[in-house]
Amino acid sequence: MKKYLIYLLMTTIGLASCKKIIQIDTNNAAPQLVIEGKISNRLIEQQILISKTVGYDEKGIYPKVSGATVKVSDNNGNTYVFTEKAPGIYVNRMRGVAGITYKMDVTAEGKNYQASSKMPNLVKLDSIGVITNNFFGNERKTAAAFLVDPVNETNFYHFNLYVNGFFSDRIYVNNDRLTNGNNLRIQLFYEANDDDDEGLKSGDNISVEMEGIDANIFNYWYALSEQSGGGPNQGTTPANPTSNISNGALGYFSAHTFQRLSTTVK
């Protein structure tokens, strides 16, 4: 019995000492160019932002890329030259037109990047409101966008939600694959950044922006929503979403319609 106890003690000590330290290789990848380009149907300073990624263990501001040549052309033969207003911010005051295809051409640090996007027809954002849902006996107020989806075309939508002036970083996208031609009530679920989150509260001011986007941009936002855990599958393995920009650049170039409505939660 004594020998058995000694053997058991030695085995336990041996197992306890068999700890292996695993070191994860987090070597930083080479910086990649990131382009975020938007052309909307408003007469404003349209912006194309150019920056670079940073390493995994680097925190802070993404470096801006200056000195790029940026222009946008359309299928009507018009060319718009974008000038650098601030480091990495290129602008041109113009208005996009529904049904027109826009092509972006960027030359930065000796490489050329191109992308195209067709602005869809405008679908009117009829109204926004607040819906009260019941989850396991608890009521929760949710913002909602109301619109009528056109019957004879395929439509894709991207929404931005602001609550009391603060941007909700949740990604909201929708298509009409199962709802073509229907009256749509699209709920935009909101989560406050605190432990006592109860969703929207009476007195909150909410603003909803609706963008009518093309299929490529829908795929981009949908992939991001899946990775963030806000999509139907509640998160996927992190990866760069498919960009519509050539030559390995990250980001997107989107020609879209834009509408914004605001209301107060009662």
What does this structure look like?
This protein is mostly beta strands. The protein contains two helices and 15 strands. The chain has helices at residues 2-16, 215-227; strands at 33-40, 44-52, 69-74, 79-86, 89-94, 101-108, 111-118, 125-135, 138-148, 156-163, 166-167, 172-175, 183-188, 205-213, 250-264. The strands form two sheets. Strands 1, 2, 3, 4, 5, 6, 7, 10, 11, 12, 14 and 15 form a twelve-stranded mixed β-sheet that branches. The radius of gyration is 25 Å and the shape is globular.
Describe the structure in brief.
With 266 residues, this protein is mainly beta. It contains 2 helices and 15 strands.
Major β-sheet profile: 12 strands, mixed
Helix content: 10-25%
Total number of helical segments?
Answer: 2
| Cα shape | globular
Low-confidence spans: 1-13, 19-26
Helix-strand category: mainly beta
Oligomeric category: single chain
Helices and strands, in order, run as HEEEEEEEEEEEEEEHE
Nearest-integer average pLDDT: 87
Beta strands, count: 15
In terms of DSSP E residues, the strand content is 35-45%
Question: What radius of gyration results from the CA coordinates?
Answer: 25 Å
Spatial separation of the terminal alpha carbons:
76 Å
Main attributes of the structure:
twelve-stranded mixed sheet, 266 residues, three-stranded antiparallel sheet, 15 strands, mainly beta, single chain, 2 helices
SSE topology sketch:
Blueprint: H1 2-16, E1 33-40, E2 44-52, E3 69-74, E4 79-86, E5 89-94, E6 101-108, E7 111-118, E8 125-135, E9 138-148, E10 156-163, E11 166-167, E12 172-175, E13 183-188, E14 205-213, H2 215-227, E15 250-264
Parallel strand pairs: 1-15
Antiparallel strand pairs: 1-2, 2-5, 3-4, 3-6, 4-5, 6-7, 8-9, 9-13, 10-11, 10-12, 10-14, 14-15
